[in-house]
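Re-run with default settings, no changes from the original entry. Doing this only to confirm the output is reproducible before filing.
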Amino acid sequence: MNILNATSADMPEILRLYEAARQLQTQKQMVVWPPFDPALIETELAEHRQWKLEINGTVACVWVITYSDENIWEERDKGDGIYIHRISTDPDFRGQGFVKKIVVWAKTHARELAKKYVRLDTLGNNTKLIEHYTGAGFDFLGVFYLKNTSQLPIHYQKEPRCLLFELSV
């Protein structure tokens, strides 16, 4: 298993994994991600914020990080954390505990940047995801109603309930 920065060559695989995530979200009647603009993903790739977990050269999981997230975390965003978004796992690799592997990587990455927290969010009230993320070490901070969603992807504008998770480094 290797965790690496994704590259532009990974774009088709990233888009495929996002589509697989949308299918799973639809099947489980969760908040469904919109199709993400490839230009957004290219920007994330250029900024080295798109990551991939490879197994034997196959991309098994992707995610993106940010270093600020004030539209979601509001006053809690004090420049002291990294933020994980859009974890997407290849259906053939689901159930292998990748979130826990991402957490180990994210804690190291956060320490290297002198950050105190690893944070993530999800929308709706998905008790399975709450269990999944708390099982990976995150503290569930509760349900918050976002105030400023105009700069966020459309699914944040459609679902006001945002579940916040935080892990001390």
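The beta strands are 2-5, 50-55, 58-66, 81-89, 117-123, 139-145, 161-168. The longest helix spans residues 11-27.
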